[in-house]
């Protein structure tokens, strides 16, 4: 089964579509903007191994040096850039990749070791703190960059040094008596090694990924103790020294290393780490052809369900707790800082998409594609401005005075911006999956998301081409056109979104075969009807988080898009919409906005006479008589204007924004 | 102005009344039970300074040794026991106090030092860790014990060594170049020193209290740095070593030492510490006759308001966060562990009462007496079983499977049980305040709480006696009888509870003078009407926390009593009443329960046809269509039975309990 990082090459997006616009923005703006920032901040030249003044700074977050992720920032940019170059050439980007490749090659030690910090700043510290210091995380991103580079340039200039580095890692880590029984504090290399194995077929790449996954959380893995404990003692760490992101001593759940994956009951800790780890775990289960009842697969399902049902925001965002950038307890999903949390990091939502995609390979279930799409259009896309040059890291569902709904140009820990870049580079790989059987001369297309795009697969000498045309996610109709040689049989399975209460296909199917959210379009029908249309009537929906979240709120959604209110078109707001009460029975009108303010069309929503405002008649005290909690009208707010959450914070303003609105009393 | 720990001696409770019953329980059961536990656990003999096996145990909560509070456990018991002996003699208790006094005297070092841990276990550690190690906290409780001992026994056997110890402290701490510029991590000694000053009139006792209060939170107090920083460096503490209760490095807000008291905007950190500190601060402001606009007084008001309006539970409990036993952010008041918190420690509510009482001395405002009474009848009394031999430390408003509504026989950190004991010993001092003017031959009585009791004050040779008779808090009428010589003028001010929507006095007053919640009964009217009745019709009220708590719940209250539901008389419950929805419009009946099950009468409430249950029609996921969240009836639950929160967990059962019930959809 192909990975989306490869299969995206079969897809061509056509214009106009939301995805095509975003890709155009990244290609023409974001890639070059990020390259400029890489240069300005010292990251670009860092593999030259010259001292940079940043290396002298004390860590913002002890014990993690501020520049520790620089390897990965560069690697993710290379990876994303290679994906985009395969769409459109660009000399400046091409030259930069080539120069970076040379610098990376030149930074490699003779034994294969390759890391900026541990070569230049702390050469004695190599592999002494896997728990905190992102060495293997950086290695994972270098592997992914090398794979993208190899795929695009069809040479080994980057892959060669990376393979040499991986050789060193294979020697260093493993079950042998002379090997370290460790595993990365920040997973990433596991999924990268499995993808590498797919290219190299070298079993030691598979084995190292498997070792990292199996060994993780072993309470007696190193000398009868937890690896991180032994490692900390070896470097002389005090028994009560606590990294800034640990809420308590030895909180290995931060790294999902508190117990072996197969024993974990609930999803815990740092949410990006959890997603990268489980993406690899799902891929391992797939590669080993595990049955659904295998312990690893049941653990993955259990953790996924716990996350989606009890620890995910309306937007698809995950992670409520700022301190450890991760999951709170079940149903702890405050919308903003003033309620006790909300992190919903952009990278974490990208991680959910990665995990959902692997799960779709294991089990074609529309539930996974629903979450994939929810995250993409809301929790991920909200991370980049329409200009392509501003970003968010944290994506709260409600602003506060201390955390306005505003964007930044960059971050010290800059994981999110290049992660959005590379995701949009290979997004075509998430749109659909195709399988080809050369012997049977058959092709199967599983369509997970809708857009305007074409995918092409080859069977022997023939080509099969499937085109979808739509103005998704704004309009309801998707027109499909299949070009398939007579000798080939093609089957299509179409995702019926979970939110779609009804759907219509025309011409009509002879028979409806709908299984786990996918509608099968059989080959015989397709022979007669190579062009067909499916429609999912888009109506504004009123949604709500689970009552156990204690969020007595509702939000608006339409298709896969979650909406918010912000001050740009509700300028009266002074309090982040905190006292606003929304009447779910109000009339809501839709409007396709095509003016140029945001440079892209979208559907805006307006709720009429929907707003009232919290009024408390009496002094505040611990026990308010319930009758004194009322609402008052504010005649000037006859219209409440909603915009897609992903488009927030693009039109200036004060940074007041909210997704979930208190329900009318 | 007398302290309640002294003025309580003017009050005699009469029977029957809730307070009298509780005091009888403590006298006949709790004091002897706690004495037995003190002996069994090693605390009783600890001042003999022989090794106890507990001293070998590693700390449950680093860096605090488990036995660190033993001095204070003994001291608080002595203090409480002395209060009760002044009511009724008891040979066993008397003998124990005398023996403990001898042991404490014998434990004193030649230089006056007096502390179990730092004399026996860690003699080199004396005054090396004020931040964590409770040395001055223990000293404060020893002072309070000595004051109670001196008052009852009228000898100096305990006060003498304590004064010697205080001399050492006065030499050790202060602004001098050769003195330590430190202050206790756990306040307590400040309020004790001010009370000591009231007895000794020794200005150095006042000055040391004032120094501790003024110096607290000084960022440059010791050698240009924060005292705790200097102290930690001096004992070689690693820069990243973090006590288990610190959510992050140097979280001095835990100790309210993050900035000077006068600069603090919101109430933060460990809630017991905050209350003990601000009780002393309020007393200092009173002793210095500060005006309301003085910086310390405005700080105290600001912090009190922040607490009562934004950080207090319906029961008067404070402290949402378990890790640091303290305040969350504004409006973060989950009812139980499954919602993210709820601590509401018994000692903290006792601390609120202490602070409220001092504030009443500064400013006679019924708001303070409302909170005083709310805490007493709910957050404090819930801490002891009707048997007097079981206790709670944490008082959540909703149970969960991990934190059942159950009592314990004792705690490793046993601050709460003897704190309830001593509080009930001097509760008479909270009931009312009297002022006498010998020259004008006038007496004034401010009545803060109602019960069945008599207070007597002397004016020269005469006595003025005020009696109140009622079955408070169950019945509405309080009958007052004043016995006052013709030559003396007496004035009474009666607290009108904030919850009382109406009140009636008979005979009628000629003129109503009601100011900040206190009704003045003038002396001329009293001459004609020495017997009168005031009534506060008690009706069940439906109350609610502030909407910003995101607690969409209601609770029942009647008079000062807050109610809960528990499984003992709602045996069908399986889920801690978590799915229960309550209809605020339902009929609620009241019933005076006089059977013997709990050994005391109380008013039970029953809501008829009030219950429905959360039903979610659809699979759980992050965005539920709002229409799928409904409720279903359960015909078998026609009656929902409520019991006062303070009486919970006395009748066996499963430990399922809840105060705030979800509002009917």
From TrEMBL, chains A, B:
Gene Ontology terms: biological process: carbohydrate metabolic process
Phylogenetic placement of the source organism: Eukaryota, Fungi, Dikarya, Ascomycota, Pezizomycotina
Domain Non-reducing end beta-L-arabinofuranosidase-like GH127 middle: 447-529
InterPro entries registered for this protein in UniProt: 6-hairpin_glycosidase_sf, Beta-AFase-like, Beta-AFase-like_GH127_C, Beta-AFase-like_GH127_cat, Beta-AFase-like_GH127_middle
Pfam families named in the record: Beta-AFase-like_GH127_cat, Glyco_hydro127C, Glyco_hydro127M
Name this polypeptide is given: DUF1680-domain-containing protein
The Non-reducing end beta-L-arabinofuranosidase-like GH127 C-terminal domain, residue ranges: 549-659
Transmembrane segments: none
Residue span(s) of domain Non-reducing end beta-L-arabinofuranosidase-like GH127 catalytic: 20-425
């Amino acid at each position: 089964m192909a990975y989306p990082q490869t299969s995206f090459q079969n897809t061509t997006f056509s214009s106009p579509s939301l995805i095509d616009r975003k890709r155009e923005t990244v290609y023409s703006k974001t890639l070059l903007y990020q390259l400029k920032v890489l240069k300005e901040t010292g990251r670009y030249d860092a593999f030259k191994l010259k001292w940079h003044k940043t290396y002298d700074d004390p860590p913002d977050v002890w014990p993690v040096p501020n520049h520790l992720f620089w390897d990965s920032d560069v690697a993710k940019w290379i990876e994303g850039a290679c994906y985009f170059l395969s769409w459109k050439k660009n000399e400046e980007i091409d030259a930069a990749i080539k120069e970076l490749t040379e610098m990376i090659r030149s930074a490699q030690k003779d034994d294969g070791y390759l890391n900026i910090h541990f070569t230049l700043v702390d050469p004695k510290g190599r592999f002494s703190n896997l728990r905190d210091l992102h060495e293997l995380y950086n290695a994972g991103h270098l592997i992914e960059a090398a794979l993208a580079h190899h795929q695009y340039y069809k040479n080994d200039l980057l892959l060669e040094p990376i393979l040499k580095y991986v050789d060193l890692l294979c020697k260093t880590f493993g079950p042998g008596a002379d090997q370290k029984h460790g595993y990365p504090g920040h997973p990433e290399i596991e999924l990268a090694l499995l993808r590498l194995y797919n290219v190299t077929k070298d079993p030691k790449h598979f084995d190292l990924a498997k070792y990292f996954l199996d060994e993780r959380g072993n309470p007696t893995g190193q000398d009868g103790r937890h690896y991180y404990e032994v490692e900390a003692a070896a470097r002389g760490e005090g028994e009560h020294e606590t990294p800034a992101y640990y809420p308590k001593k030895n909180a290995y759940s931060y790294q999902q290393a508190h117990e072996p994956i197969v024993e974990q009951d609930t999803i815990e800790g740092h949410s990006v780490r959890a997603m990268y780890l489980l993406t690899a775990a799902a891929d391992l289960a797939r590669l080993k052809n595990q049955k659904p009842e295998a312990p690893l697969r049941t653990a993955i399902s259990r953790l996924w369900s716990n996350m989606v049902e009890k620890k995910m925001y309306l937007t698809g965002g995950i992670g409520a707790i700022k301190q450890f950038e991760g999951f709170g307890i079940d149903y702890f999903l405050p919308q903003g800082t003033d309620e006790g949390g909300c992190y919903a990091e952009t990278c974490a939502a990208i991680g959910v998409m990665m995990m959902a995609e692997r799960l779709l390979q294991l089990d074609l279930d529309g539930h996974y594609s629903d979450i994939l799409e929810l995250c993409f259009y809301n929790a991920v896309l909200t991370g980049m401005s329409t200009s392509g040059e501003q970003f968010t890291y944290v994506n709260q569902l409600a602003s506060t005075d201390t955390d306005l709904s505003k964007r930044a140009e960059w971050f010290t820990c800059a994981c999110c911006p290049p992660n959005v870049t590379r995701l949009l580079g290979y997004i075509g790989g998430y749109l659909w999956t195709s399988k080809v059987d050369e012997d049977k001369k058959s092709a199967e297309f599983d369509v997970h998301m809708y857009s305007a795009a074409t995918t092409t697969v080859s069977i022997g000498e023939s080509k099969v081409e499937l085109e979808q045309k739509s103005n998704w996610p704004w309009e309801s109709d998707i027109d499909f056109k299949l070009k398939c040689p007579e000798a080939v049989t093609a089957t299509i399975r179409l995702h019926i979104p979970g939110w779609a209460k009804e759907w219509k296909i025309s011409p009509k199917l002879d028979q409806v075969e709908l299984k786990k959210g996918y509608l099968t379009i059989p080959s015989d029908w397709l022979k007669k009807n190579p062009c067909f249309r499916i429609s999912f009537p888009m109506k504004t929906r009123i949604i709500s988080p689970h009552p156990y979240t204690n969020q007595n709120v509702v939000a608006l959604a339409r298709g896969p898009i979650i909406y918010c209110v912000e001050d740009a078109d509700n300028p009266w707001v002074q309090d982040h919409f905190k006292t606003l009460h929304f009447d779910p029975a109000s009339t809501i009108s839709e409007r396709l906005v095509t003016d140029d303010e945001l440079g892209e069309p979208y559907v805006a929503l307006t709720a009429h006479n929907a707003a009232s405002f919290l009024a408390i008649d009496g002094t505040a005290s611990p026990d308010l008589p319930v009758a004194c909690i009322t609402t008052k009208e504010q005649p000037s707010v006859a219209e409440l204007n909603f915009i897609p959450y992903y488009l927030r914070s693009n039109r200036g303003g004060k940074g007041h924004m909210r997704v979930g609105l208190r329900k009318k009393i």
